[in-house]
Amino acid sequence: MSEDNNTGTMLLSFLAGAAVGVGTALLFAPKTGEEMRGKIKDLADDAVEKIKDYATEAQDKIRASYEDGKEVVLEKKNIITSAIEAGKEAMEREKEKQKAV
Predict the structure, then answer these.
(1) Domain ranges in the chain?
(2) How far, in Å, CA of 37 to CA of 27, rounded?
(3) Number of H helices, E strands in the chain
(4) By the 8 A CB rule, do 30 and 36 touch?
């Protein structure tokens, strides 16, 4: 009987260890394919949202830079136009002086 008791205890210990091992394996097992696809989809959606936000921010900065540049170009154009007009007027005055001499 002692030998049967040891075998039973050993078998019970083996089954208890197997149950603990299966439980542990289930706790640490990787996610199912469906769960993994869901997680990947969520990560991809987050990445797409961030990319859209960055693109919008970049577009806003580009527009602001364009408008600033446009104003600078118009200002420089006005300065150059004024300088050209002043040059033409000065040249006309010199021509008039040369005619008078």
Answers:
(1) 1-30, 33-100
(2) 19
(3) 2, 0
(4) yes
Q: Within 13 A of 6's CA, how many CA atoms are on the CB side? A: 3
> How many alpha carbons lie under 13 Å from residue 12 in its C-beta half-sphere?
6
Q: How far is residue 55's CA from residue 30's CA, in Å, rounded to a whole number?
A: 35
Amino acid 90 reads A
DSSP state, 29? S
Phi and psi (nearest 5°) for 29?
-65, 150
Strand boundaries in the chain, DSSP class E: none
DSSP helix/strand/coil, 99:
helix
Q: Are 31 and 39 in contact (CB under 8 A)?
A: yes
Instruction: Give pLDDT tens digits for 16-64.
Output: 887 777 767 766 767 677 876 887 788 888 888 888 888 888 889 889 9
Question: Whole-prediction pTM value?
Answer: 0.46
Of 12, 76, 88, nearest to 96 by C-alpha is 88
